[in-house]
């Protein structure tokens, strides 16, 4: 459960986020949709306590990232925009590193890795060094790394970036599985199909502000459009920076 | 502190797999420096020996004017060659290092008791002619002195009356302290190794992590940022320290191979000296790691970090160069100066002197304090969003 109220963040003269408020419920997938540069990544970075907000309030399961950063980080699983794997280490070592940073016991790590290898289908490359991995393999390792400590809240920044059709389908199945298991999932993307296929609720961000917020049907009603695509374009006010 | 240990372990493991890091930290210093040093020392000693022992061939112009003098030179092992056409030209062309010319008035000056002129043609600005020239001059002077003494004796005067003052050297340097001249090189090499040993790791674990975009996901883990930074610094320090140990051990085993006997110098780096030097230099490793990590973390990219490292090379060199150009007597107040004090102390160790506990305490404490302050500053660097997201 995440509650964001009137979030602001500037970098020098650039106002990246200008008053964003929304809610993410447990057992739901919430999509942050918006063109490139709309402020999605900055919003997420404030949620996972990497950036302090200039103004506004964030509560994740009742905790404040600016004050309880460590507690929040223990309950969060984040797949950031930059996957950043260590290429001189195997996939297993990459994941184990993060598990150890979460202070998991050796036995627990071993069991959890076995589970992840099965769900994410990583048998073929789990013990290979990540140098030269395909985008799909890299995303899988990044997801396994983020999920190794079984977080309640999952945040993914553009998870399907650079993936082929097969990998994208597998990824979507995995995200839907998380929802069924009762996790709350926040997904940032600029791909409309992804939002349509996955999200229960959609938060449309443009120029650092909330353009619209609701279920797919609510958005269609609000905009008076026939298709989601038209609705997005109308609500954002431009076609720029979106992918079908 | 478990986070710190985890980061430390991972950085060590990852860099042990990096061939470039291994090469830079663990092979380059420990192998290259001793070979370079021993090689140079061996070469120069060898050359010097060669020149001293070499049969000297000296062309003599006008040998017929002074047959006794020429006979004396031959007795002393000099091979007399026939007079060349153009003596000056031959010396200038470096065909021979030195030529003797005896003018025709030699006999006349000799018999009338005036100083008989003998010309020594050589170019002292050429280093290779230095030793032959000195040898010939020494022999000519010896001959002159011998004849002079004989003349005085013939006139019933004691030749010692000529020697108004006699200078006598009282040499108090021990074989080890004479070795110090050579061992000035050692502190210099060790200071540089304290920096280069961990340099690659410092860059890879900060600027490199930023460039590969693995820093952001790393910082999302529930580990305080100062622990992550200190873990990286500790890994840097470990690499530097291992590199230093290997370098010292390499020197320890390489030194007996040196041609020290020929120079009358006894260089010794026993186990106790190695241990003492490592102890003294350990705080420098802390200081160097903090400095390297700070600089590398401030850099926006690997390339920028590497360009800073070129400058940082100068830092450990400054005290060594000052000491090389102007060797000074160690004083208590100097022990507070990082790197300079270690330079002096390593010198004392190698000379085989006992080092006062106060000096050790001041040098190690002073350097460690500055190193820890720097480390504390570096530990907060990842708290700044500008540094995390700057690439």
Structure report:
The complex is a heterodimer of chains A (244) and B (391). Chain A contains 9 helices and 9 strands. In chain A, the strands form 2 sheets. In chain A, strands 5-6-7-3-8-9 form a 6-stranded mixed β-sheet, sandwiched between helices. A 3-stranded antiparallel β-sheet of chain A has the order 2-1-4, with helices on one face. By secondary structure, chain A is α/β, with parallel strands linked by helices. In chain A, 42% of the residues are buried. Chain B has helices spanning 2-16, 19-53, 67-75, 87-92, 106-111, 130-154, 175-183, 185-211, 215-219, 225-254, 260-263, 271-298, 302-312, 314-325, 340-351, 357-379, 385-388; strands spanning 57-61, 79-81, 98-101, 119-122. In chain B, strands 2-1-3-4 form a 4-stranded mixed β-sheet. Chain B is elongated, with a radius of gyration of 31 Å.
Which tags fit this structure?
heterodimer, A: 244 residues, 6-stranded mixed β-sheet, 3-stranded antiparallel β-sheet, globular, B: 391 residues, mainly alpha, 67% helix
Describe the main β-sheet of chain A briefly.
6 strands, mixed
Largest interface: A-B, 30 and 25 residues
Strand content of chain A: 15-25%
Number of distinct helices of chain B: 17
State the gist of this model.
The complex is a heterodimer of chains A (244) and B (391). Helix content of chain A is 38%, strand content 24%.
Topology:
The complex is a heterodimer of chains A (244) and B (391).
Chain A (H helix, E strand, L loop, with lengths): L1 E10 L2 E11 L4 E5 L6 H8 L7 E6 L8 H7 E4 L11 H11 L4 H14 L15 H13 L5 E5 L7 H16 L3 E6 L2 H7 L2 E6 L2 E6 L1 H8 L4 H9 L8
Parallel strand pairs in A: 3-7, 3-8, 5-6, 6-7
Antiparallel strand pairs in A: 1-2, 1-4, 8-9
Helix pairs in contact in A: 3-5, 8-9
Chain B lengths: L1 H15 L2 H35 L3 E5 L5 H9 L3 E3 L5 H6 L5 E4 L4 H6 L7 E4 L7 H25 L20 H9 L1 H27 L3 H5 L5 H30 L5 H4 L7 H28 L3 H11 L1 H12 L14 H12 L5 H23 L5 H4 L3
Parallel strand pairs in B: 1-2, 1-3
Antiparallel strand pairs in B: 3-4
Helix pairs in contact in B: 1-10, 2-8, 2-10, 8-10, 8-12, 8-13, 8-14, 8-15, 10-12, 10-16, 12-13, 12-15, 12-16
């Amino acid at each position: 459960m995440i509650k964001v109220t009137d979030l602001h963040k500037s970098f020098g003269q650039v106002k990246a986020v200008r008053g964003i408020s929304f809610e993410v419920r447990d057992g739901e997938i919430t999509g942050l949709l918006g063109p490139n540069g709309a402020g999605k990544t900055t919003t997420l970075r404030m949620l996972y306590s990497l950036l302090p907000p200039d103004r506004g309030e964030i509560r994740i399961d009742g905790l404040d990232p600016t004050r309880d950063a460590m507690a929040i980080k223990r309950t969060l699983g984040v797949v950031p925009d930059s996957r950043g794997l260590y290429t001189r280490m195997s996939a297993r070592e990459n994941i184990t590193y993060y598990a150890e940073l979460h202070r998991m016991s050796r036995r627990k790590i071993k069991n959890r890795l076995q589970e992840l290898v099965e769900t994410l289908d990583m048998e073929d490359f789990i013990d290979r060094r990540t140098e030269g991995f395909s985008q799909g393999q890299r995303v899988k390792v990044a997801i396994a790394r983020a999920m190794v400590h079984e977080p309640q809240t999952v945040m993914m920044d553009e998870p399907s970036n650079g993936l082929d059709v097969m990998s994208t389908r597998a990824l979507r199945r995995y995200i839907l599985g998380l929802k069924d298991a009762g996790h709350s999932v926040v997904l940032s993307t600029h791909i409309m199909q992804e939002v349509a296929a996955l999200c229960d609720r959609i938060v449309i961000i443009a120029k650092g502000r909330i353009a619209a917020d609701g279920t797919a049907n609510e958005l269609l009603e609000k905009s008076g459009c026939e298709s989601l695509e038209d609705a997005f374009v109308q609500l954002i006010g431009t076609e720029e920076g979106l992918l079908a | 502190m478990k986070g710190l240990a985890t980061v430390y372990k991972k950085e060590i493991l990852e860099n042990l797999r990096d061939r470039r890091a291994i090469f830079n930290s663990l092979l380059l210093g420990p192998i290259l420096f001793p070979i370079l040093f021993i090689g140079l020392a061996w070469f120069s000693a060898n050359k010097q020996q060669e020149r001293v022992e070499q049969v000297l061939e000296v062309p003599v112009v006008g040998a017929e004017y002074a047959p006794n003098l020429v006979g004396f030179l031959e007795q002393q092992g000099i091979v007399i060659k026939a007079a060349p056409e153009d003596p000056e030209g031959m010396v200038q062309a470096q065909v021979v290092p030195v030529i003797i010319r005896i003018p025709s008035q030699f006999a006349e000056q000799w018999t009338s008791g005036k100083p008989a002129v003998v010309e020594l043609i050589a170019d002292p600005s050429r280093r290779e002619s230095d030793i032959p020239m000195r040898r010939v001059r020494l022999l000519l002077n010896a001959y002159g002195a011998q004849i002079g003494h004989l003349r005085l004796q013939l006139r019933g005067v004691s030749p010692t009356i000529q020697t108004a003052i006699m200078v006598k050297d009282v040499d108090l340097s021990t074989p080890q302290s004479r070795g110090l001249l050579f061992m000035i090189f050692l502190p210099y090499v060790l200071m540089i190794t304290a920096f280069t040993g961990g340099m690659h790791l410092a860059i890879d674990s900060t600027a490199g992590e930023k460039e590969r975009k693995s820093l952001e996901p790393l910082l999302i883990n529930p580990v305080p940022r100062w622990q992550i930074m200190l873990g990286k610094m500790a890994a840097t320090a470990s690499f530097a320290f291992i590199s230093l140990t290997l370098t010292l051990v390499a020197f320890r085993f390489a030194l007996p191979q040196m041609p020290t006997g020929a120079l009358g110098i006894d260089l010794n780096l026993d186990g106790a000296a190695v241990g003492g030097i490592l102890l003294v230099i350990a705080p420098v490793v802390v200081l160097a790691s903090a400095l390297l990590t700070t600089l590398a973390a401030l850099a926006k990219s690997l390339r920028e970090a590497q360009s800073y490292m070129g400058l940082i090379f100068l830092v450990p060199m400054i005290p060594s160069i000052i000491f090389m150009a102007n060797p000074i007597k160690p004083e208590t107040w100097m022990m507070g100066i990082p790197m300079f004090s270690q330079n002096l102390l390593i010198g004392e160790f190698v000379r085989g002197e006992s080092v006062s506990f106060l000096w050790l305490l001041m040098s190690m404490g002073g350097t460690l304090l500055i190193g820890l302050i720097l480390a504390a500053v570096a530990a907060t660097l990842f708290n700044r969003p500008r540094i995390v997201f700057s690439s």
